[in-house]
Amino acid sequence: MKRIATSISFHCSINICVIFFLVLFILNGISLQAQENPVDNKDTRPVKNMFESTWLIDNQTAIIPYKGTFEFDIMHRFGTWDKGYDDFYGVFAPSNIRLGLNYVPIDKLQVGFGFSKDRRLLDFHAKYAILQQARSGGSPVNLTYLVNMGIDPREDKKSGFLETSDKFSYFHQLMVARKFNDYLSLQAASSISYFNFVEATMDAEGNFLGKRDNMVISTSILGRFKLTNSMGLIANFDIPMTDDEFNDPQPNISFGIELTSSSHAFQVFVGNYKWLTPQYNHTYNQNNFGDNEILIGFNMTRLWNF
């Protein structure tokens, strides 16, 4: 009970810190906007290049490309490097890869789908920009909503699915982002992951102990600092806010380098998330950064405008 109480206290403290961070984030943006941009010099067009890609490591960013943009994603995660040279630091270990296709049919809306190697997962998403940071005189931040639906198509006995609906999982995320200057952009987000199906927990004798919660709440903080016009440092921190005695997802720490051109973005990084569908990362991650359960990953995106 003491451990559970400590855990609850810790997560409540984190929640308060995140809320405080978000409030300061928005108020600081409003203050800077008011000081730097007189009302009579409004330019409400969205700021350019808040982020260089719709992805930053394991999270989608708050940006929506221009209407008519078609995007192709390649995402790869090697195995953890804790075995050292035995599997060449995870390069020769079992890996995960995702291929994705996205399109912007109307202003501020992106839709897309992807499929991953692990569990042969399918995912479909929609992302809408409720607010877009203006160059001057308008919104001081981007406010973007993301919804994702995952489908586990497995039919084997290991899946444990009893109904078709058991295959479905969902992810909802609200993102607040701001480009502070030509070098620094930050984003904070709150997320809800939900699974229709949860596995039962059994003891060694086969007795039923219980089930984990269907829903996990989490928070993500990410950012980019540009070193040159085509290279920047990136970092990502994901914190689960919900746990119970049958499920204790581990937080994610990741950081790396991003290289970009007008139509490409390439990111290489280290972190401890292995899944490529967000609700699986936030719910199932058991890799612990402190225990050296770290892996190398990369993302590549290619854009076309029609």
Could you explain the architecture of this structure?
There is one protein chain. With 306 residues, the protein is mostly beta strands. It has a single domain (2-305), classed as Beta Barrel (Porin). It is 14% helix and 47% strand. It has a 12-stranded antiparallel beta barrel with strand order 4-5-6-7-9-10-11-14-15-16-17-18. A hairpin with a 2-residue loop joins strand 5 and strand 6 (109-116). It is globular.
Distance between the termini: 58 Å
**How many individual β-strands?**
18
For this structure, what is the CATH homologous superfamily? monomeric porin ompg
Classify the fold: give the CATH topology. Answer: Porin
- Residue stretches low in confidence (pLDDT < 50, at least 5 long) are 1-13
Structural class based on helices, strands and sheet pairing: mainly beta
Query: Can you summarize the main beta sheet?
Result: 12 strands, antiparallel, barrel
Helix percentage? 10-25%
Number of DSSP helical runs: 2
Order of helices and strands: HEEEEEEEEEEEEEEEEEHE
CATH architecture: Beta Barrel
Tell me the β content.
over 45%
Calculate Rg over CA atoms.
Answer: 20 Å
Q: How many structural domains does the protein architecture include?
A: 1
- Indicate the overall shape: globular
Write down the CATH class.
Mainly Beta
Spatial strand sequence of the major β-sheet: 4-5-6-7-9-10-11-14-15-16-17-18
